[in-house]
Write the structure tokens for this entry.
Amino acid sequence: MASRKEGTGSTATSSSSTAGAAGKGKGKGGSGDSAVKQVQIDGLVVLKIIKHYQEEGQGTEVVQGVLLGLVVEDRLEITNCFPFPQHTEDDADFDEVQYQMEMMRSLRHVNIDHLHVGWYQSTYYGSFVTRALLDSQFSYQHAIEESVVLIYDPIKTAQGSLSLKAYRLTPKLMEVCKEKDFSPEALKKANITFEYMFEEVPIVIKNSHLINVLMWELEKKSAVADKHELLSLASSNHLGKNLQLLMDRVDEMSQDIVKYNTYMRNTSKQQQQKHQQRRQQENMQRQSRGEPPLPEEDLSKLFKPPQPPARMDSLLIAGQINTYCQNIKEFTAQNLGKLFMAQALQEYNN
Amino acid sequence: MSRFFTTGSDSESESSLSGEELVTKPVGGNYGKQPLLLSEDEEDTKRVVRSAKDKRFEELTNLIRTIRNAMKIRDVTKCLEEFELLGKAYGKAKSIVDKEGVPRFYIRILADLEDYLNELWEDKEGKKKMNKNNAKALSTLRQKIRKYNRDFESHITSYKQNPEQSADEDAEKNEEDSEGSSDEDEDEDGVSAATFLKKKSEAPSGESRKFLKKMDDEDEDSEDSEDDEDWDTGSTSSDSDSEEEEGKQTALASRFLKKAPTTDEDKKAAEKKREDKAKKKHDRKSKRLDEEEEDNEGGEWERVRGGVPLVKEKPKMFAKGTEITHAVVIKKLNEILQARGKKGTDRAAQIELLQLLVQIAAENNLGEGVIVKIKFNIIASLYDYNPNLATYMKPEMWGKCLDCINELMDILFANPNIFVGENILEESENLHNADQPLRVRGCILTLVERMDEEFTKIMQNTDPHSQEYVEHLKDEAQVCAIIERVQRYLEEKGTTEEVCRIYLLRILHTYYKFDYKAHQRQLTPPEGSSKSEQDQAENEGEDSAVLMERLCKYIYAKDRTDRIRTCAILCHIYHHALHSRWYQARDLMLMSHLQDNIQHADPPVQILYNRTMVQLGICAFRQGLTKDAHNALLDIQSSGRAKELLGQGLLLRSLQERNQEQEKVERRRQVPFHLHINLELLECVYLVSAMLLEIPYMAAHESDARRRMISKQFHHQLRVGERQPLLGPPESMREHVVAASKAMKMGDWKTCHSFIINEKMNGKVWDLFPEADKVRTMLVRKIQEESLRTYLFTYSSVYDSISMETLSDMFELDLPTVHSIISKMIINEELMASLDQPTQTVVMHRTEPTAQQNLALQLAEKLGSLVENNERVFDHKQGTYGGYFRDQKDGYRKNEGYMRRGGYRQQQFQTAY
């Protein structure tokens, strides 16, 4: 099962949106019946998210916040956002919903868009495909159909290219999540694989014309040297981290498969036992000639089939592995380019 | 004679008998029937003629006095007993009382006693403090006296109304009494005690009379009237005589003691109508009393008895005038021996009897044969003295036993014509025919082996930290001397098998002792001076190494039972190891192939094996062979049950897992304390050698995912150390090692050194070695070397090249050593570097895979296993088993192999680059 997944792992969505005035995402877009085809983000929102992480997030800790905006036709416009306060153990009784409502009410008073259209979250080396994200995105999408989750990767951004992606759950996954049945059979029936769990929605970052003008002005003034992060050749650390994380997920995957394997073995063993019992009964019947056969149903009821392991986790892991692979591929491709460039430069200099 | 002893145990009939006597016989009556009682009291009582009233009343007053005494010391149990006696005595005096009226003093004691008891009863605190027996007695007595006093109610009330008068009267009475007593004797107390005791001891005296009568019978059997002359002549044997006498007193005392609880018990039984149960209890009680009395050896009881008629008689072996011949003595001996092992035989008495017999035999010059035979039996009965296998001999018995064996050996050495052997039948014994060699049945070897066992038992049961233990340990020399003597004897006369056994015994007493003399000799080089040579010659015989060699070789060659040889080999190895002869020890261990089949041996041998392995490991450590040390100690240490495996104590943890029986067995297996191997030393040696191995290894394989652990125990300690929230300066030995390991990890040998070797560790561990300084220098050197290795492993990636001189300065090692260590590392491909000779530097090659490459390799491996697991799921789905499955599996293996090769190729590529 899993191998099949891996075999087709290469056809993943890849659309990186670079910082720029209006870099139109070319990604494949959502499936037909999706409510949102495009996400348009205000520059303010991007800056606010970046600032939030810069101030509060560090290391593996993630920051989260609420996106506000409205839907125009098939385009989701995100015009503002506000952060969630960082969770601490002390204030366990902190009421998030209350906080959100208050926040939105306050924003409304100052005439800012107050419609809840999703949430954002920072990520650590792209490790965001988790159960928590799935659950909360599901609840968002369940309540507000057009909700998206914005994933902001601060590390990639620090390397010179803004990494911001919008994701939605596919309708198929929504169905499955609604059913809350993650047994192998159900997933098979839903025909869902890890590629079709999340759909990426293309992102457009939109600024007002005034800001655009300002940008142009600033760009002229700034020296090229300021953008040297882009040319950094030091890649080993990033790659190493990615590999490490990938390896961890692969381990998890292995364990998951082993679990599944035991389950399979147990079920097959039990079936065999049933067969044996049946056969025994048949034999008895033949031996004692004429006696009515014993009812065999109660026996099969006695042994409950083993609990099938939930497959959602493995799906998520597969999805996560996929993300890591994408990351690494992307990263190495860029780096190779840089290396070749550096080589060429060196040759030229010599 | 034996009949007398058997009556001792039959306490039930005896007690009832004594009870009767108590009731029916008035005090001091029927003296004529006791011709053997030589007590002065007897005469006293004879002299005084009193009226029946006086006699009865005296009896009563005596009892009352005892009760008052008991009341004073709050001994309620005693009160109860006496009260019962009082009741009886009063019953006897009934006729007189009828005539005279109830005596005042009687009423008084009743009233007082009741008051006293009520007072006690109210005193809750005091009652709590009271022991169980007393508390029980208190309630019983209270009930009884209440019932009893109902009959005397009018008297008591009148007494209470007018206590003065009655008191006066009583005093008067007392005076009268004391006057009367002073007539009899000067000391009033003594007499009253005597009279009282006399009454009590009536039963015993009756008893003694009885048994003496029996003795009479028996003596009549031996066709003569008894006479003291026989004993008077035996002035040389006065020592044993007194012992004998003491024994007699003891026996008497036992009866005397038994008396009190017996009546008490009988009463109870009558009361509760549960006779059989009481009987059982009573039996037990009397037995216990017997034992107690044995402990006390009677001496203590003598004083109490005071004027009680003492039985000065000794049992007579032979009637006077009997011609003591071999036949008679042997007959007697057999007679005594027949009682052996029977229930109720007084073992102490038996031993004494046998000793007497020896004396008689010696006096009558019956020849050594008889004496030897009797001696054998004495020793055997000494061993038999304790019926329980777990209990150990008492010191006196043990001393006696040693003496006896020594004497026996003296005789055997003095008379080479005596043949001793197990195989000699009773019939073919020749005990007196001087013309032929004397033949005696008995096995000196077994006796000595048993003695050794007893010695071990004594040591096991003594607190190892007491002076007592030291005292006992002093006997070890004696034991060794005896073994040596027996060895000499058997070397002349014994069979090879016996010689093997005695040799093993000798070995077992030699192997664990460090031969300081030989060690000293080794240290001082043999210089030409004649004096030292002389010393050497003097000491040569004592060199335990030579001795061990000789004994063990003999056993290797001659022994046919596997066990003795195994033990001998193990002891030999242990001895080698103890004296730092590592290579001999190791070779012997390897040659013997003991490691392969030791698990089939019995537990004591396995314990010996474990001890040997541990000693071997410690020896290897002393030699600086850390790896060997680690390997030898690994098995013992990794289980965490070193204490148990070495037989040095039981683990508390497994206490609930075994039942009492098993525990007893295990307890018996324990090694005596003086043979113990210091467990802390053992653990320290293990941990330090693990540290010396593990730290460089860890440094070398830092990034290797499949790194295995050399020592789990060590890692465990490291983890424990890491878990500590607050890291103070190390206290325990383990903490020291952990701290040292941490320092070593950084290549900081000086800190490491200061943690391993300092005051604390010296005191705890290193000073325990015989050559502590040598070990310490070795250790420092090892720490330097391993730190250097660790340093190179850890920091080689930082260096392009490093001068060997710098390294030599850093680790305070001389240049050739550094050179050799680095060369070794290069040869073993542990360090990718080359030596640049002219500049004396190490040039790093930097071929180690980078972090990413390592990660990639690991990832590849993990993916391999993932794929394999995944394929298995597939197989399940398809439901294919058997051949197809196996083919598939091979397929994955190939696949895996391919991937591995890929990994290697990558590495090769890297190295080429």
Q: What stands out?
A: The CA atoms of residues 109 and 144 of chain A lie 22 Å apart. The beta strands of chain A are 38-42, 64-72, 75-83, 116-122, 148-152, 164-169, 198-201, 203-206. The first strand of chain A starts at residue 38 and ends at 42.
